[in-house]
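Changelog-adjacent note: as of this version, every example in the card shows the full chain rather than a window. The one below runs 460 residues end to end.
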Amino acid sequence: MLEEFRQYIRSRRLTTPDDRLLVAVSGGIDSMTLLDLARRVFEGRLVAAHCNFTLRGEESDGDQQLVESYCRQYGIPLHTIRFDTETEARTHGESIQMAARRLRYEWFDTLCDQHGYTKIAIAHHADDSIETFFINLVRGTGLRGLTGISDRRGRIIRPLLFARRDDITAGISARRGRITRPLLSARRDDNTAYAARHAVPYREDSTNATLKYLRNRLRHDILPRFDSASNNRFARTMEENLLRLQQTQRFIDLQIARLRAAALDDHTIDLERLDPECLAFELHELLRPYGFASETVADLADLLLGHDADNDLTASGKRFEAPLWSAVVDRNRLLLVPRTVEPFRDEQIAADDPRIEWLTVGELPESLATPANVAYLSADALKFPLTLRLWQEGDWFIPLGMVGQKKVSDFLIDAKIPVTEKARQGVLLSGETIVWLVGRRIDDRYKVRQDAHRVIRITL
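Full-length structure tokens:
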């Protein structure tokens, strides 16, 4: 496996002789195997980084101690950090997994900037890529999300993507007295599995066994059934599928680049260059760098497909908004104009204001994801007229996903909002209660619940 590791890095050109490598190490078997391989290949050019997310008490501390011990043994420099992950998740309205991911990658980037590390090595392997395909299939991320895990993204590299889980772990579970049912059948004799053969120390994360998380349900239950039904050909078939999907995405990216060169000039899109049969998709790809939400692009495409640009001028002048850009229809052109965000003015918003759409729960879309300037609110407890004003010192609310109140000033600091944006931050109030920190987070007490009688969709 060591030679395959070298060859994969070389063939994929993941590193250069001048790179300094930061290896992310959790203490689990995959990352410890990556660290063991990397120390043999990048001797003197690597450091390790370990995040203690403090989610499993003594188990988390034990993971850190294992990594520290291994790094001392082999003279590998090590960075460690502790995160209050649960508080971070509540503060930002994220799941624990999303908060942990954000925290670790932000920290890795900071370490690289401070110390000059040029690559960040992550221990994802081929099984992780297959699981990611199915997770994204369930979530509906489109083709780009169905290409699995890339072996490079910016300075992040994944040099274990050539390997399967059994290449790393086969033979270990029996040795430790645990019974597992791996997703993939081993490609080699169990004795050649790297971690077993080299006695790589590691710790088992107890949460890996729970079926609470979608990835674990796929790993332990659903995907093994596919493997059994395909006579152990499933993994090989999925590898081939992912390769074809990756090639398809690269072809699409190339065609979009050509379309962008032909149709987009000085923030103006020539709509006549777009194919009506693929209009929504082409617009989505062209507008993606400008930050337009998928729902906004779909509405724009519906408008353009519903009129004749030569004879029907009703669409001209229609404006679609992203946080930093506006898209304005001008006959056969789409003009992209930077937005000048003005401070909110104090005003009263009546129940019949055109910016408010009244709905029932049954009329809501499947997803309540919206552009930043749109919010869904349970209207049962709202008192009209609503008040829109700039935030003030002493303002507080209960951010969505939290159980306790938080000062608006603290929320903006934690979200690292620039001073210039803070000065323009608006709040929407019902009576004296903040229901929406506009563009950022609604109040948890006004989120839409299944038993809500009335719901509003408000656009500011």
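Structural remarks: Confidence is low (pLDDT under 50) at residues 171-191.
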